[in-house]
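Sample A.
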Amino acid sequence: MRVAALREVALEAGRSSRAIRDELRPTRTGSILVSGMLAEQLARELAVRADAGAVTVGDEVALGPATVAVRVIAGDPSDEDDAFVRAADRARVSVVLVQLWPQEEWRAPFVLSPFVVECKTGEGFPIPTIAARIAEAAEDATALAARVPVLAGPVESAVVKSTVARSALLALSRSPAIRSGIALEQITMVGQLRSLDAPDEPDPPAVLAGAVAATLVASYALRSVARSARQVLPRSISDPLVAAAGTFAFAQALRVLSKRL
């Protein structure tokens, strides 16, 4: 039994090591294309500290290298706006609409994208909100945020929230093989968050090994906590609660550690 347990730990450590290496491996991603009214101004604000070419200005002709397009429109969508969104759809590029409205009160009209930011003229672009919609629309938001720092905050929050949710769902399973996936989810989260913190400075092998070991130790500790919690709460409540809370706490600890590193 002890040998089997050690074998399982070794297998889980191997899977975790591969997962974190995959997340930290450099990924090629496209750019953000900004188009429409005041596109140059918005592009400048999104491109603060970004890699060269990560945020560009253009029309539907420039959609090729883009991974996300941002279209700034004024009032109701025009024929040009409609044509741009349709061209982006053909190119399989998600579109974030930024709607400028001069009136005090208005009702949102028919929109061409599920990713919409409402912005009143004269109040400036709500960059955090726009960045959050871009993070939702991007297929590989983590890789894009490594090139465009203004996206880092929204992407980090999305990574933590999704990992917490998946960990809670996995904890509902009675299968040990499926439940062991919680550690893999946490390791993947570690890799994603570290790639946002230091995209140009890969962690040395010793740091990666330490991260894997710390996550596995924390994962096994959480399993023990979950077993104790079952004496007070039903398993269907205690296990997801412990998994979600433990994953969130691990993410917060990693944030503190990353600042020190």
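Sample B.
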Amino acid sequence: MMNREILIKYLKNRCSGEEFEELVTWITGNGQNQDGRTWSFDHWKHFEPEIKNEEKIKYSALLDKIHHEINLRQREKKGRPVIVTTEVVKWFSRAAAVLFLPLLGVVFYLLSNGRFQTDQSAELLVENLEIIAPVGSRTVVQLTDGTEVNLNYGSTLKYPRSFTGERREIILSGEAYFNVAHYPEKPFIVKTGKLDIQAVGTAFNVQAYPGDDVVATTLVEGKVVIGKPTSGNKTEPVGTMVPGQHVEYNTVSGKMCSVKGSIEKYIAWKEGRLVFDNEPIAGVAEKLSRMFNVDIEVADDVRYLSYTVTFVNDPLYLILDLMTETTPVKYHALPRKRQPDGTFSKQKIRIVKRT
């Protein structure tokens, strides 16, 4: 069992670097068995301090990160793929260095129960969380109701720590694939600002990147209702989708178009595949720009040339090279420019007609 004196010294923020390393080693080893969790949490309950008001925001934010990392570790143990992850121990070490707050009991309680303590400390926890999938990365989020969300490149998901009331509402900026937990009495609502997509127990994809004129929804299974948000947090239904249907809503013109059939190209991204099926070069450039964080300009005389190909986790220049072999285009990678602050501008690529 862990040396009680080292634990108490840590809780008082008085342990040495060597003692802290010993504590972390125990946490990741014997500390994760039932006896270790019980022992550590019992000590936490007898020691838990009163946190000053000015530290509550920092404390809550750190707990959010720990909670997210616990979810990812639990997924890894089940053999589920996780694209973006960080070791809990790294957050734990950072907590000791930054906040001087005793978080050991919280970490153990999360590891053993998969949830936060519902006692007096609950008032410290923020109600809404935000997860960001950085450019070039995808991530997976497990919501408290059991819904699984795959976030695509450069996307942001805002959601409550726990769903209360008659609806489960989240806010999406970017693209995500949802596998919604089935609770018929509590509909699941994806809010994009321009459209609300409502489901019960459903698998579907939503694309709603800021700056795009189109919000797209692809239904894999189940049923969703598309609606326009109105005053009073209400939604005006505009249509119901069926499995295998892809709907695009133009936020400028207000027009909606729908296709039914093969939907693979709309959802392949979550498996690391990039599918272009008779896609205009302009659309290809838009997706590559977002995926690789570059600016791709397309000449007017080649914008509507079509491109059909599938890539699996391939680098940008391999994709561009293949494009030049199968279509009458060529590309130029322009040198990046040094900015006044010392950083460099985003990579710019120009696609033109091959002569």
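B remarks: Residues 48-63, 80-126 have pLDDT under 50 and may be disordered. Residues 1-125 form one domain.
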